[in-house]
């Protein structure tokens, strides 16, 4: 009921004095931001008194009390924002958590906004000081944003989305949950939270880096500096998903080769498992939640297993326990419940279905994806045909960060949203996400960590985009994988800040 109430709450109305506005003109292709920026400027005089360390609340911004975890102080902010910034629309709630080092609650610190990877995942929930958050709190007031639709921001879950009466209603609603509106939310928050509505630093991880480039394209006045880790998207085409997956399959093949070199004993385990699944009734075995595990479903373990620093090990340990032991002679061979349960929890589709629904949409501007990963897989199916590989004694290749239409048939949590997912895959009128002309003349300092062997964000495509952004500095390294910020956050954040503040050489 709370989610429904948030959706139906009207935009607060009040009498205000509108200050003289500085003209702000966007071209028609960028019209999604016009009303947003007008509203932000219009309301500036009203809300600046709320900024800083005070706890003044209004109907559009509620500030809660401070609480503690070891070495940190935290407090929650809840904002009532328009679902659609381009017209009058229902409001949704957006949640952000403010964090400072213990004892610094009243200090005048610059703000750093963290943009989470995904799409469709909430911000971190720190239980103690550590990693990049501890380093950031040495000089910043950190804001962890639950991007709209995630965490405590009017969450779109596998249960809440069942409230929609039709697939078209759900698809229309989901169209408002991409980077463009995440940036609109960030600007809405910035002018209500940061003293004098000053620009802030943003740190974007993975998809959060995609959002950072959208921010640079359409609201650079809100940015003091930009830090990106493993998240520079391709730009300049109506739909870049085809380029992403075309390059992605190449990198996935290399990651598979590395995996089987590390754990050669898994070659036969995976072959045997694929044949068992293929020969089972219905072409697979039931999963605990009600879905089905098939050979091509098994291959999706590469999504997490091949791209993060500990993924190889986690996948190997999972495969170690694929079979139940034979306790009674003559009993049939069976896949263990441990393995089937581990498979279902591997992807988080039950808790974060937005990832599957919007994954290809994050690459679309004025064109449809039309299930891009599925199309591109057909070009390399000779390498990724699991059953044929198993029967011919070849290595069965896992797939990478790719969403396929059959997932909405085989994964229980996604089944109710198959029709909406198909509508989103066919949608063509996606608004722009980037402005290459603005990026080419960008003056906001940008420091980006680029992981040379990143399976999720292709190095060649990253370098093509970086060449089109002014004032960007790249730190190219093969010391870390895509999960670098999680694995060595203090080191990576310190390096990026040093690149922007003069502590690192310019060459």
Automatic annotation (TrEMBL):
SUPFAM superfamilies noted in UniProt: alpha/beta-Hydrolases
Keywords in alphabetical order: Hydrolase
Keyword Hydrolase: yes
Keyword Metal-binding on entry: no
Residue ranges of every copy of the AB hydrolase-1 domain listed in the record: 112-265
PANTHER family membership: 2-SUCCINYL-6-HYDROXY-2,4-CYCLOHEXADIENE-1-CARBOXYLATE SYNTHASE (PTHR43248), PROLYL AMINOPEPTIDASE (PTHR43248:SF2)
Entry similarity comment: Belongs to the peptidase S33 family.
Name assigned to this protein: AB hydrolase-1 domain-containing protein
Organism per entry: Brassica rapa subsp. trilocularis
